[in-house]
Amino acid sequence: MDGNGIAAAQAHLAGEFQLFDDWMDRYQLLIDLGKALDSLPEAERSEALKVPGCQSQVWLKSEFDGRLMHYRAASDAIITSGLIALLLQVYSERTPQEILGTPFTLASEIGLQTHLSPSRANGFANMVKRIAEEAAKHV
Predict the structure, then answer these.
(1) pTM surpassing 0.90?
(2) pLDDT, tens digit, for every residue of 61-117?
(3) Helical (H) or strand (E) element with 75
(4) Which residues span the domain enclosing 127?
(5) Smallest Cα–Cα separation from 57: which of 72, 65, 46?
(6) Which of 11, 21, 63, 84 pairs as cysteine with 73 (C-beta 3.0–4.6 A)?
């Protein structure tokens, strides 16, 4: 990930989504992001890595190399995989301090929350929360 930080990553992704006026096109972008996701291998998808409260199954694995957090994740649903890909582009390869010190604004910037079902929005919020919890272990 580049060194421009979380805020810059969110701004870049917001710009990509704002190229499309139609939400069907935005969903397609999410699907494409999900298909390109470097997924978590099946063998690593343990119960301990499951994110609770998600409509579909989501596994999130974090690793800390002494400086940066590295996240890998997978889902059994295509839209959810796209949501995960968004989060990994924003948060992976960042310091725990940056993760905890930069608010997640992308969803509101692109209007995502109003276009997700309540259960999917809840699961998305739980993914963001888990990323922060994992980072907090290394501050």
Answers:
(1) yes
(2) 999 999 999 999 999 999 999 999 999 999 999 999 999 999 999 999 999 988 998
(3) strand 69-75
(4) 5-136
(5) 46
(6) 84
**Known catalytic membership, residue 50:** no
3-class DSSP assignment, residue 120:
helix
CATH code at 13? 3.90.1010.10
Q: In residues, how long is the chain? A: 139
Q: For residue range 78-92, what is the model confidence (pLDDT) as tens digits? A: 999 999 999 999 999
In the chain, how many domains are there? 1
The two structure tokens encoding residue 138: 């290394």
d(CA 84, CA 7): 17
3-class secondary-structure state, position 59: strand
Q: Which of 54, 110, 127, 135 is catalytic?
A: 54
